[in-house]
């Protein structure tokens, strides 16, 4: 196929600039950069399904252990409380063997020195059984542990699926390079009161977004 050069017809400067901007919107990478948005693939975990109870690989996300992470729809074993914020699925990160478990994705397009805001919705599995415990979540970009996320404890928003909104998280990051890996971890490695077995806890995450702090606010 023959490539055709993009030409701006003879017109006023404002009209010419409008045409240039329209052309940029048609180029995904440039459009994202111009909007101050860092592209996150599969940000609401809708791009693949896994059979119940939901363990398995998540498209575009790296897992420390696919037998400890996966996706759920409302009412499945991990998404057992709260109203899913976006779409019909959420990701879960379970820790029940004393190991730190994580989901991560390498991101690019940062401008070093620029400030970004990370937003996402989160919750915890209710799991009304004796070994259940509240998870401890850490979010990182590159080597930076984001504040105030670093080590906050979270609790289920409710006891039933589809009734209560998830928590909304908002954290800031100043870029140190053009790429950085976004990582969500469940670091609960505690044992039960008898000290004989590890607690079982799970984090639920949905609708992840990342943009420059000066960009247009998130629409939710």
Descriptive notes:
The protein is mainly beta. The protein has 2 domains: 7-36, no CATH class; 38-212, Galactose-binding domain-like (Jelly Rolls, Sandwich), CATH 2.60.120.260. 9% of the residues lie in helices and 35% in strands. It contains 2 helices and 13 strands. The chain has helices at 13-25, 28-34; strands spanning 62-63, 69-73, 82-83, 89-95, 101-108, 115-124, 136-141, 144-145, 152-153, 161-165, 167-174, 179-186, 201-212. The strands form 3 sheets. Strands 1, 5, 7, 8, 9 and 12 form a 6-stranded antiparallel sheet that branches. A 5-stranded antiparallel sheet has the order 2-4-13-6-11, with no helix packed on it. Strands 3-10 form a two-stranded parallel sheet. The N and C termini lie far apart (42 Å).
**Annotation field: number of helices:** 2
CATH-defined superfamily of the largest domain: Galactose-binding domain-like
Q: Biggest β-sheet, characterized?
A: 6 strands, antiparallel
Structural class: mainly beta
Query: What is the domain total for the residues?
Result: 2
> pLDDT below 50 for ≥5 consecutive residues: which ranges?
1-9, 16-34
Q: Number of DSSP strands? A: 13
**What's the CATH architecture name of the largest domain?**
Sandwich
Radius of gyration from CA coordinates: 20 Å
Do you know the CATH topology of the largest domain?
Jelly Rolls
Strand and helix order: HHEEEEEEEEEEEEE
What is the end-to-end distance? 42 Å
- Provide the CATH top-level class of the largest domain: Mainly Beta
Coarse shape: globular
* Mean pLDDT over the full residue set: 84
Portion in beta strands: 35-45%
Helical fraction equals: under 10%
């Amino acid at each position: 196929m023959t490539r055709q050069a993009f030409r701006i017809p003879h017109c006023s400067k404002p009209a010419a600039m409008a045409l240039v901007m329209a052309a940029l919107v048609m180029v995904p990478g440039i459009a994202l950069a111009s909007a101050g948005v860092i592209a996150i693939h599969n940000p609401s975990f809708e791009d693949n399904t896994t059979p119940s109870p939901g363990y398995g690989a998540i498209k575009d996300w790296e897992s420390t252990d696919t037998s400890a992470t996966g996706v759920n729809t409302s009412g499945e074993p991990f998404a057992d409380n709260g109203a899913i914020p976006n779409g019909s699925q959420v990701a879960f990160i379970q820790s029940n063997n004393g190991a730190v478990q994580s989901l991560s994705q390498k991101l690019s397009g940062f401008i070093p020195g620029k400030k970004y805001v990370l937003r996402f919705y989160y919750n915890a599995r209710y799991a009304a059984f004796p070994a259940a415990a509240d998870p401890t979540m850490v979010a990182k970009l590159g080597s930076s542990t984001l504040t105030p996320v670093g080590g906050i404890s979270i609790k289920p928003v409710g006891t039933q699926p589809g009734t209560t909104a998830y928590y909304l998280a908002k954290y800031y990051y100043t870029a140190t390079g053009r790429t950085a890996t976004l990582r969500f971890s469940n670091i609960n490695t505690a044992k039960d009161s008898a000290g004989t077995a590890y607690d079982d806890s799970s984090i639920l995450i949905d609708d992840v977004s990342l943009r420059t702090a000066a960009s247009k606010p998130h629409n939710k």
